[in-house]
Write a structure and sequence with these properties.
The structure is a single chain. With 268 residues, this protein is an alpha/beta fold. The protein has a single domain, classed as Rossmann fold, CATH 3.40.50.1820. Helix content is 37%, strand content 13%. The protein has a 7-stranded parallel beta sheet with strand order 3-2-1-4-5-6-7, with helices on both faces. It is globular, with a radius of gyration of 22 Å. The termini are far apart. 44% of the residues are buried.
Length: 268
């Protein structure tokens, strides 16, 4: 038979045990390195799709955004990526990291991109930030996702702390893209196999964690705002404008400032 004294002690003993557990847990959390505002990581920029593989001018695309980041105090290396043979003023070609052509799918470009990031940075203990416009946003997301899953053709997991996508068709491009039957364009339409693949994880993470921010606009006729923000993220990191067309994100002062904030500040 249990005495009343013993029975009365049990709740107090339980409370003490729970409290001790919370103290231990809090101590463990306090020992973990907290993320801080940081502006010295390398930033890698990836441009979007070009009809017929006509190519992009990386300096024209990202030069204004790079200047804004420098003005905001970012000191790390800034690198632009090319993957069309007619791209110009870009720093690194993915043709050096995989067998690609002007019609290579964005998923296969993700594989080559993951190898570049892993070999150049992750394997040396360097964490990077990523910015991708349009299809470039799918390329960077696919690289983090595929490498984290250990899928064939991808590198080992890549260390990416902050990633920003600008008008990326996370759930497919505008309705008229359904008419695309071949080439890169066919992989960008709603319901495409590669679109469904990347949506297998709405918030893919690299080692140490990756913080995603996605920007879209209701005035974008190429990528609907709902698709541009189609990731499983906190609302404050799903940003929708009403006045940006598809090519405006890198040059618009408001979206430049939001990208700068996302790359520098934790949970911005």
């Amino acid at each position: 038979m249990v005495s009343l004294t013993t029975a009365a002690r049990r709740p107090r003993h339980l409370a003490v045990a729970v409290l001790a557990g919370l103290v231990i847990l809090a101590g463990a959390t306090a020992c973990e390195p907290a993320r801080v505002t940081q502006r010295d990581r390398p930033i890698i920029f990836v441009h979007g799709w070009s009809a017929f593989g006509n190519g992009d001018d990386c300096r024209s695309n990202f030069g204004g955004l790079e200047n804004k980041l420098r003005a905001d105090g970012f000191t790390g290396q800034m690198v632009t990526i090319s993957y069309y043979d007619s791209d110009k003023n870009c720093d690194v070609s993915l043709s050096n990291w995989g067998s690609i052509s002007n019609s290579t799918s964005w998923k296969d470009l993700s594989k080559a991109f993951s190898k570049y990031i892993y070999t150049t940075y992750t394997s040396k203990g360097i964490t990077v930030d990523l910015v991708g416009h349009s299809m470039g946003g799918l390329i960077i997301r696919g690289a983090v996702y595929g490498s984290a899953k250990g899928e064939s053709g991808f590198s080992a997991p890549i260390k990416v702390e902050d990633a920003v996508t600008l008008a990326a068709p996370h759930n497919g491009a505008a309705w008229y893209s359904t008419g695309c039957l071949w080439g890169q364009c066919s992989g960008l339409k709603p319901g495409a196999t590669d679109i469904n693949w990347v949506n297998g994880d709405g918030n893919p993470q690299g080692p140490g964690g990756t913080e995603w921010t996605v920007l879209g606009s209701t005035d974008d006729d190429t990528v609907p705002a709902a698709s541009a923000t189609y990731m499983f993220l906190p609302d404050n990191r799903k940003v929708v404008y009403s006045n940006l067309e598809h090519s405006d994100y890198m040059s618009n002062a408001t979206s430049q400032a939001r990208t700068s904030q996302a790359l520098a500040e934790p949970n911005a």
